[in-house]
């Protein structure tokens, strides 16, 4: 009796585990497009959510927040542009990258998509490899950005990015809450920041008597500026070493994870850098804070940030 040959695994033919690439919401009123994209995305390791129109898409977002959205620009009822504006107005959804799918290729239509909050667009008829390549890039970037924002929030600080027109391009959840509390609406907070003169920190009273303090970290891109926000209790001494240490956003992330008890290797894995690079950041942090040990830096961060 002949033995059956051993099964061999070809690494080139391995199929990604379902959901390993993330969750994608596909919004389109054309069944053929939905079917094509759903099959391709599932084969590429994505979990796929489906909506046939704009209202259905917003309902889906109430139940689950995806890692990215493929959104048809022209649909009956709510257009894709309007759907994008509504989801970008919701803090819990605003971070999700939206890629428009459209048969409209005029410059005016493309500009409308970006003005609505889209990060990219693909022209119909859909070319699946192009969609998958663009999607993978935006999902990866969105996850990295979200992790950075959350890391800063863990440290008790907030970050705001202003674009070249003085509008808020993005902000961490904590920064958004502080601006809402101090000004009632994020737009007023943007005007407060963009009207700053010089390098002196800005201060804005809050309803509880404390102050919202903003310090500009410098240019972050062509015409863009980044701001670091924190709060100070009423009557507190203005000797907050953390607030005046001029830590970079990356150093702030490292310090926030250090304060949570993470090792250099853990921090490197979280932030995508080598332990050696983490150690170099810590050397700069220790110098700026005027401390000599990890324990002292962690204690200062914990005490200052509460």
Please name the defining characteristics of this protein.
disordered N terminus; five-stranded parallel beta sheet; Profilin-like; single chain; 306 residues; alpha/beta; 3 domains; Rossmann fold
Describe this structure as you would to a colleague:
The chain has 306 residues and is α/β, with parallel strands linked by helices. The strands form 2 sheets. It has a 5-stranded parallel sheet, with helices on both faces. It has a 5-stranded antiparallel sheet with strand order 7-6-10-9-8. The chain is globular. It has 3 domains: 16-148, Rossmann fold (3-Layer(aba) Sandwich), CATH 3.40.50; 156-238, Profilin-like, CATH 3.40.1840; 245-306, Arc Repressor Mutant, subunit A, CATH 1.10.10. 45% of the residues lie in helices and 19% in strands. The termini are far apart. The chain contains 12 helices and 10 strands. It has helices at residues 31-43, 54-63, 80-88, 107-116, 128-154, 173-183, 186-194, 241-244, 249-259, 264-271, 275-289, 294-305; strands spanning 22-27, 46-51, 68-72, 98-102, 120-123, 158-162, 168-171, 202-205, 211-221, 224-232.
Let me know the number of strands. Answer: 10
pLDDT < 50 runs, ≥5 residues: 1-12
**Could you give the order of the helices and strands?**
EHEHEHEHEHEEHHEEEHHHHH
Radius of gyration: 23 Å
């Amino acid at each position: 009796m002949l033995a059956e040959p051993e099964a061999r695994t070809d690494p080139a033919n391995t199929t990604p585990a379902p959901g390993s690439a993330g969750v994608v919401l596909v919004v389109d009123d054309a069944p053929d497009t939905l079917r094509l994209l759903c099959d391709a995305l599932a084969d590429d390791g994505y979990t796929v959510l489906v909506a046939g129109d704009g209202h259905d898409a917003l309902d889906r977002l109430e139940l689950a927040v995806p890692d990215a959205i493929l959104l048809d620009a022209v649909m009956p009822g709510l257009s894709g542009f309007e759907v994008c504006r509504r989801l970008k107005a919701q803090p819990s959804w605003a971070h999700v990258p939206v890629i428009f799918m459209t048969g409209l290729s005029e410059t005016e239509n493309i500009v409308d998509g970006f003005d609505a909050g889209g990060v990219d667009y693909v022209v119909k008829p859909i070319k699946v490899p192009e969609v998958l390549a663009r999607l993978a890039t935006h999902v990866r970037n969105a996850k990295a950005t979200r992790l950075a924002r959350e890391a800063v929030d863990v440290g008790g600080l907030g970050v705001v990015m202003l674009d070249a027109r003085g509008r808020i391009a993005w902000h961490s959840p904590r920064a958004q809450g502080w601006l809402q509390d101090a000004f009632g609406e994020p737009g007023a907070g943007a005007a407060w920041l963009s009207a700053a003169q010089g390098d002196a920190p800005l201060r804005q009273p809050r309803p509880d008597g404390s102050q919202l303090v903003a310090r500009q970290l410098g240019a972050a891109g062509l015409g863009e500026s980044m701001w670091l926000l924190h709060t100070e209790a009423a009557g507190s001494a203005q000797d907050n070493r953390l607030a005046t240490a001029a830590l970079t956003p990356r150093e702030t992330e490292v310090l926030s994870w250090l304060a949570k008890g993470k090792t250099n290797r853990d921090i490197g894995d979280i932030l995508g850098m080598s332990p050696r690079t983490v150690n170099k950041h810590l050397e700069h942090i220790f110098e700026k804070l005027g401390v000599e040990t990890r324990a002292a830096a962690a204690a200062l961060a914990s005490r200052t940030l509460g």
